Amino acid sequence: MISYCPICGKPVYFAERKRSLGKDYHPLCLKCYHCKRQLSPGQHAEYDDKPYCNHCYLQHFGPRGTRWPTLYSSLRAASSSKVPLENQNSS
What span, in angstroms and rounded, lies between the C-alpha atoms of 61 and 46? Predict the structure, then answer.
């Protein structure tokens, strides 16, 4: 029985398949949906039927403590670029 790749929709033959999370992929189709890094079978996560490397999965869908602090870092950069109040009064 021939299965179909969930990424490209083409048939996946037994000799070329990479089976992961209950699905058969072409070797070149099994890559992270976000960063496009090649994935090995069983060593990745899946969200909304799309494969993600563990890093991207945690960054986008994991608990808040593991996400990149983009809002915090942008607020921090904006506050560090302001002139301190002591220097504004003396000029």
Answer: 10
CATH for 18: 2.10.110.10
Residue 64 to residues 35, 37, 68, 83, Cα–Cα distance (Å): 20, 23, 9, 32
Could you tell me the CA-to-CA distances from 83 to 4, 25, 72, 78, 86 in Å, in that order? 60, 55, 19, 11, 8
pLDDT tens-place string over residues 38-77: 998 888 888 888 899 999 999 888 886 555 555 454 445 5
What tokens does 23 get?
């699905």
Considering the domain boundaries, does residue 27 fall inside one? Answer: yes
Q: What is the pTM of this model?
A: 0.62
Domains in the chain, number: 1
